[in-house]
Design brief:
Shape: elongated
Largest sheet: 8 strands, antiparallel
Radius of gyration: 38 Å
Number of strands: 8
Order of helices and strands: HHHEEEEHEEHEE
Structural class: alpha+beta
Distance between the termini: 127 Å
Number of helices: 5
Length: 249
């Protein structure tokens, strides 16, 4: 009986050793199913993470676009005011001098193009610039054009005519050292002048008569209709008043 017990003891010990080996083997690795499940979870987490990053990127891009368009419009409207504030007021000739002098214009609107003669800067003798504002019929872009500084009447007249040609061109392009900047995209724009305590269209007979005598309006109203698809859309109204109107400084 003793040998039998010895063999049985050896058999039991071998079985225990084999079980421990299997247990260690299981602890040392993963099954194929476990690996596939882990990879699937990682793939789902990667997709969710990518969507989150993509959403953040799109939101940042939209915010940046909104900010850029709003700042561009604000800068354009500020430039509009600055052009009118710096508008050149030509001396009014009298008597025979009025017939000899060539035309001199400070502000002319023909229904689609506005031309302004303005001081180049606040310093005396800095010269003049001719500024033009127009809306392209092709795509509705509202543009500002300005000439190089001019210091003679001949140079001013050439710049004034160049501004008119720029406004008539189907695709306005700045040439000859001039500069053109896009401000916004418009569906429409209109101007109104304030004279004799009333607003009127610049192309009305009374306004044309005042314009021919080179009398500047007391105020100018700018009506813009911003095209949809931009950060800002719809009507915008901006009034400019002459600094000295009504006794102001």
């Amino acid at each position: 009986m003793k040998p039998f017990h010895l063999v049985a003891g050896v058999h039991a010990s071998s079985k225990a050793t084999f079980s421990v080996a299997i247990s260690r083997r299981r602890k040392a690795g993963f099954t194929l199913i476990e690996v596939l499940v882990a990879l699937s979870l990682l793939a789902v987490m990667a997709v969710l993470s990518w969507r989150g990053i993509d959403g953040i990127t799109r939101a940042q891009a939209a915010t940046q676009r909104y900010t850029d368009e709003v700042l561009t419009l604000q800068a354009g409207l500020g430039q509009w005011r600055a052009d009118l504030d710096a508008m050149m007021v030509w001396p009014t000739p009298a008597g025979a001098d009025a017939a000899r002098l060539p035309p001199q214009h400070s502000l002319v609107w023909n229904g689609s193009l506005l031309r302004i003669t303005r001081q180049d800067s606040g310093e005396p003798g800095a010269g003049l610039r001719v500024v033009a504002w127009a809306r392209r019929e092709v795509d509705g872009r509202w543009l500002r054009w300005q000439s190089q500084p001019v210091r003679s009447h001949a140079a001013w007249d050439a710049a004034w005519q160049a501004a008119e040609g720029w406004g008539r061109a189907p695709v306005p392009v700045a040439v000859g050292g001039a500069q053109a900047v896009e401000v916004a995209t418009l569906q429409d724009w209109q101007l109104f002048y304030y004279r004799n305590n009333a607003w009127s269209h610049p192309l009305s007979s009374a306004a044309e008569g005042a314009q021919n005598t080179q009398a500047l309006p007391d105020a100018v109203r700018l009506n813009l209709t911003l095209a949809p698809g931009q950060s800002l859309s719809g009507p915008v109204v901006l009034d400019w008043v002459q600094p000295g109107y009504g006794g102001g400084t």
